[in-house]
Amino acid sequence: MLRWILGGRDAQSAVEKSPVLCIGEEQPKNWFTELQVLKGHFDIVRFLVQIDDFRCASAGDDGLVLVWNVETGEKLQELRGHSQQITAITTFTCVSGDTQHTSLITASSDRTLSLWDPDTGNRVQTISDLQSSVKCLLVLERLCVWLSGGDELCVWNKDFQLQCQRQNHSDTGITALIELPKNCVAAAMDKEIVIYRLTVSSDSSLSVAEIRCLSDHQDNIRALINVNDGLFASGSHIGELILWDATEWNILAYEHILWEESQADTQAEIRLGAPKPSEMSIQHLTTNGKLILAAVGSGLYVYSILTKTVVAYRKTAHDSNVLHTMLLSDSELMSCSEDGSVRMWEMQDLPLPAEPASPGFFGMWSFGRSSKQTGPPSKKVMEMPSLRMLELTGDLIGHSGAVQMFVSFGAKGLVTCSTDHLLILWKNGERQSHLRSLALFQKLEENGRL
């Protein structure tokens, strides 16, 4: 049964302590209260990408790419061609005169790249016999080219013709790519961020050159995102969050998310060991240009770009690692986890800001700056009067496996994918009931019964 778990909870309390609402009971406005299970994959579904206002594509370890109508839940196309798991997927929109068409680009462990037409399901182009699997894709629509990253960086035009490439020398290859100003791109490789510049010659040929290597992270980079035209951010396996200047590539802010033993733990005879690296690892970053939301282990961390300080966090937001996040507004956010849940959160002011909150409620993180920073170290949680709490406002329970990611279609609903091979389309029950009533009245009117 679909259910909503509502209300805030202590960081260490069990989910079952919260009130539960079922379908048919009074529901908070604009919350997802209906679900539709979408079946079609027969292995882990890892990727979702929005095609337009009413379609999305899903892909995963079965090598399939499925196109869905999020308004009806109908499977529109089944794109078959890859023999192994999909490792990356993105959209590629080409504008021709007054018309534009969105295609899909996929990469697979079978060492092929494919261009698909989601309208017809046809594979338009394919590149095979690559030297290695592609781990990430980046479309530069302004230059009408796209890049693939793996053991090498390749630049392709819209006709899937190789324009130029650069060989990489790292253990893991390129794991993430983002676009930067001045025809530059940033590539995450192990502990480093490599800046490349694309140059267009007079004969319209392209070349790519490495111009900078940023080696400020102490561990492998797990997340790399654009913040705005002038900033980008990266997160590492040991909880380092770095804010970068997008044109000069200098560090503007550095936060290291650390565990801190409470006084009770210090006095205990039996102490717990140091946290595992995965508990501090930044698995995902997202931003709205004002805030950065980081998935850190099983917790959530909200960082203000303006003040360069933490504004809210929750050490235990889920029972397992958080895999994907989204900022719905300046005060609302969403996260999904290996524990199979998708949770809604709201940043709220402390009820008694003059009184310090207990460490048990907020968890035990401390925040510090890199030794490279000249400014004062970040204040500890107890000394930050502007810190807000993350209050749990909803919990979507439907998947039986780890929820890999989700895509929001606003009022049309939310799509989630999981290791249970399923997609779930979540919708606002009140809105859906209203739409069904309208459709019924229209049908009755057409039949002359009104």
From TrEMBL:
It comes from the Eukaryota. WD repeats lie at residues 57-78, 104-126. GO terms for cellular component: lysosomal membrane. GO terms for biological process: regulation of autophagy. InterPro entries: WD40/YVTN_repeat-like_dom_sf, WD40_PAC1, WD40_repeat_CS, WD40_repeat_dom_sf, WD40_rpt, WDR41. Keywords: Repeat, WD repeat. Pfam families: Beta-prop_WDR41 (PF25178). The keyword Repeat applies. This is WD repeat domain 41.
